[in-house]
Automatic annotation (TrEMBL), chains A, B:
PANTHER family: GLYCOLATE OXIDASE SUBUNIT GLCD. Its cofactor is FAD. This is Glycolate oxidase. The keyword Repeat does not apply. Keywords: FAD, Flavoprotein, Oxidoreductase. The lineage of its organism: Bacteria, Pseudomonadati, Pseudomonadota, Alphaproteobacteria, Rhodobacterales. One of its GO terms (molecular function) is FAD binding. It comes from Salinihabitans flavidus. InterPro entries: FAD-bd_oxidored_4_C (IPR004113), FAD-bd_PCMH (IPR016166), FAD-bd_PCMH-like_sf (IPR036318), FAD-bd_PCMH_sub2 (IPR016169), FAD-linked_Oxase-like_C (IPR016164), FAD-linked_OxidoTrans_Type4 (IPR051914), Oxid_FAD_bind_N (IPR006094), Vanillyl_alc_oxidase_C-sub2 (IPR016171).
Amino acid sequence: MEMPAPNPQIIAQKARIVKRLRAALPEGAVIDAEAEVRAYECDALTAYSCPPLAVVLPGTTEDVAKALRICHEAGVPVVPRGAGTSLAGGALPTADSVILGVARMSQVLETDYDNRFIRVQTGRTNLSVTGAVEEAGFFYAPDPSSQLACAIAGNIAMNSGGAHCLKYGVTTNNLLGVTMVTMEGEVIEIGGAHMDAAGLDLLGLICGSEGQLGVVTEATLRILPKPEGARPVLVGFDSNEVAGQCVSDIIKAGLLPVAIEFMDRPCIRATEAFAKAGYPDCEALLIIEVEGSDAEIDAQLARIVEIAERHDPVEIRESGSAEESAKIWLGRKSAFGAMGQINDYMCLDGTIPVSALPHVLRRIGEMSKDYGLDVGNVFHAGDGNMHPLILFDANKPGDLEKCEAFGADILRLCVEVGGCLTGEHGVGIEKRDLMGHQYAPEDLEIQMAVKDVFDPGWLLNPAKVFPLAATGARREAAV
Amino acid sequence: MEMPAPNPQIIAQKARIVKRLRAALPEGAVIDAEAEVRAYECDALTAYSCPPLAVVLPGTTEDVAKALRICHEAGVPVVPRGAGTSLAGGALPTADSVILGVARMSQVLETDYDNRFIRVQTGRTNLSVTGAVEEAGFFYAPDPSSQLACAIAGNIAMNSGGAHCLKYGVTTNNLLGVTMVTMEGEVIEIGGAHMDAAGLDLLGLICGSEGQLGVVTEATLRILPKPEGARPVLVGFDSNEVAGQCVSDIIKAGLLPVAIEFMDRPCIRATEAFAKAGYPDCEALLIIEVEGSDAEIDAQLARIVEIAERHDPVEIRESGSAEESAKIWLGRKSAFGAMGQINDYMCLDGTIPVSALPHVLRRIGEMSKDYGLDVGNVFHAGDGNMHPLILFDANKPGDLEKCEAFGADILRLCVEVGGCLTGEHGVGIEKRDLMGHQYAPEDLEIQMAVKDVFDPGWLLNPAKVFPLAATGARREAAV
């Protein structure tokens, strides 16, 4: 992936910039020792790495504002970073950039059960938001696979989803307000613990903006009462088409499971070999989970099983206990690890209209043969959010490039069938140069003009989201 | 409400502008006869009116683009209009503006039941969207009170809600994509029938932008399978506080009714006198509706009744038949008409955190005495969206001004308790000068800078949303 040449003037001024940051921020908040800075050279898209100029780890919104003001004055690019779990290179540094990490900002600022919200600093991890409210019987709904590690800051930047977002929506549906610091160091409040916004709804714009518009330091999040219980059913099919049709029919029937997860044969096989969850050896497998009281669960599962039975399943396994539920989920939750045992893999993320599932899976299978790279599919079928895992060998020259070309073909296919380049991982650097496939030049121009408003110098999170070719003139004008 | 002075140069060129529009558009699409233009001089905020320069009623996105291009070249302000049902003056013309109405654009362009969406021209009325899909067992969820008349264009402009939005969300939660024409006449596509957006999520920004950023001509809307059934329960209380607490407890228990409607004593009395729905004569009344299969409805209502009983209700009336359900809803649906029988009224729209309900109702009662104007409250309690109806006499000199001052005090109170100036009616001209109460100057500046991107000449929907004082320099610079 091409990256813009770093600004040599900035690099030459490193000592001065670090000194200014140190003078303004508490002790220990600025890191520039080479060995320590290395820990921030990449995120979870490990194929790409580059040590930043320095790393700043503030503890408060005020310190974030100070750091940004200094970088802004000095013309230093800033890469905001949550927990560094981006799969799209969303927090990849450039050599002339300062990493602004919110990892030390993990406090709960306010909980309000009557109005069902929690306000946190955005360095707090996703799971520990639920942790802060679960004794009172609440939870925070979006649940990315990385929820143990990923930060709310990154969830907001990428509009993250998760397996249970079919029912509860993704981050944007559970975010009520943010405190954001602009590149100029101005602190602005957007939204809050109430419905709707007066004037332009900037909250929807900020959510998913991948650190292009500002650094979100505090967030007001909707919390929900924990359901009484949950129970999955596993259904195996001899055909991807039929499994896809079953998903469609469940949704059409007006049922709203919390999750409908889909695994195809390559993924089932890899998972079985690794986790031994006792999955049937079939073409496609659905895990459908419903929530509620025991009576509600029984009623919903009965209707789901009835629909599944009309589609000639090879197996229907309804969970009868907490252990059986855990076993049904075990394979799904081990899928990424299982694929990783076989080889290196790249995890893609695109969305498609649900009805296009069979066609897209068939085409991915054909491309897999053409490229000579195996691929397993595991994804959130209910909302058409695909996660193809392409296997490759990082030590084999040319394999990464082949894998990337294959991935780009899959994402182009998603767009062709009426879908989108990204469901929850964001564009980052990974899909930056595919944006032209999704958007006409005038559409991209409007997005970039909106960035101009918030970050006229184009200093925030450089080289992400927008194709380098399209942003070149802007970056040069800003220097 | 102060309006900016119309541009005399534009008015002087009326004949030339109308001629250009006529030449570009099909016969009958341009109206400039004084008597016909009068029909567009106001929307549902009838206290304000002003005939526009001319009215354009295109039939296609292409014709909208042609009209906008001509107005843009001539520097003519454009006021987009749906069905003209705005309660906030969102479609109020200025004397130098062209009304661009989408009322003739009401076609269904595509229905896709597998992927659960419908694509329509935005002049289509809200209710007729459901009408187009109900035979197939689907419906469109947002249901403003004006749904028989209001257009999807206006729903998108104001991010409209409705009684059943507690469960299904407001427009922004049910809007998948739009075709929008910018003031320059450029047609852009935003979002689509898939989850998420790559890059900046402009869809969330467009929704609720009150015609400030472009004219939305086509929309892709989420449709949902119709529930098997629905049933309300009516609960009366002797205290607003206790009724508010009951709402809180229902939500905290993890129940998600489709609607929780609240009426206070003045509203109950007016409604009873008018519609004779047989409501109890009490301080506060809730109508709580749940949906699902008969078994699900029974289970949910049982839990709701159990919670209500803990709050000393004066009456609990569970519907036992379709007739009883209709009677329970009759009063609520007649409330606006009933208040209108007593006097002229102004319908406000603000949101508050649900827990602030008792305090806000008490304060409104006190202010009602101070101003000497009666007020009835009927609103969507589940999501804290209030609709105080202030009664006044339009023929009594000074009464409208007193009513507006009272309304402004109520909206300021909403902001003070952590709420928002608008839930679903928008800012329009009504709340324009209150925006400074909700937003700091730098917050407003960012909103206006975003408008600069889409409409640098500040020609779209003039004098709405932003305080005149704040926009003056921009409008002058643009002329």
